[in-house]
Design brief:
By secondary structure, this protein is an all-beta fold. It has one domain (about 15-95): Sandwich (Immunoglobulin-like). The chain is built from no helices and seven strands. Strand 3 and strand 4 (about 50-55) form a beta hairpin.
């Protein structure tokens, strides 16, 4: 009998930012979680609005962000059984410019 377990919740993502302040690109990476086959990345802004901005099988992602202010990033792990809760957050502050 094969048993698939729910994935372990990923840890806090590591963030970096490149590009101009007018077109910032945020790069996130995280350690692989046990039993995970895919991951979802969620951002939450300073007003509490959250959205999933990426889903895939890797442990890195990059996204061009059209937002000013502080964004919190978190990651959850998924497999055929379901998804873990979102893990701890890491924040980045984006400043608009030219």
């Amino acid at each position: 009998m094969n048993v698939t377990l729910l994935p372990i919740t990923p840890g806090r993502p590591t963030l970096s930012q490149t590009g101009s302040s007018a077109k910032p690109v945020v790069h996130a990476s995280w350690a692989a979680a046990a039993y995970a086959t895919t991951y979802d990345v969620q951002t939450t802004n300073q007003y509490g609005y959250s959205e999933n901005i990426w889903g895939g099988s890797g442990t890195t992602m990059s996204s061009l962000m059209y937002w000013t202010g502080t964004l919190r990033y978190s990651v959850r792990a998924c497999n055929a059984v379901g998804c873990s809760p979102y893990g701890p957050t890491t924040s980045v502050t984006l400043v608009s410019g030219n």
